[in-house]
Amino acid sequence: MAPTITGRCLCGSVTFQSSLAPFASRACWCRDCQYLAAGNAAINVVFVKDHLTITGPLSTYQSTADSGHAVQRSFCPRCGTPLFGESAAAPGLLAVRAGTLDDPSLGRPDGFIWTERAPEWGMIDHTLENLPRQTPPPAA
């Protein structure tokens, strides 16, 4: 049996857990993610949504991503921690912000996306897959 993966927001009002390991992790340099990550790439760890249990209140923000797809981002209404992202292009999948995982080693990215939007000082590991724009949604 796989160990349970857990995480939370900064204040602990929102927690989550999954007994199913994530199947992808990407560093995203799109402008939206740069805003969410205080100017850096956001590290998004992708889980199958039905295998995540989320407790606590969430606030949401809906917008159109650089990819052109509708996206809903969820955050803690108490402390403001960005927690999740859900794209209409990938129903059933949930991107969890790596900084919210209790075990940060699970956030090691498999690759980088939207590298064409990275600032010239942006850190990109060229030994991993790098895509100038959005990758096709991963299959669960």
Q: How would you sum up this structure, described in words?
A:
This protein is mainly beta and 140 residues long. It has one domain (5-118): Beta Complex (Metal Binding Protein, Guanine Nucleotide Exchange Factor, Chain A). 4% of the residues lie in helices and 37% in strands. The chain contains one helix and eleven strands, in the order E-E-E-H-E-E-E-E-E-E-E-E. It has one helix at residues 31-36; strands spanning 5-8, 15-18, 24-28, 42-48, 52-55, 59-64, 70-75, 82-87, 93-97, 111-113, 129-130. Strands 6-7-8-9-4-3-10-11 form an eight-stranded mixed sheet. Strands 1-2-5 form a three-stranded antiparallel sheet, with no helix packed on it. It is globular.
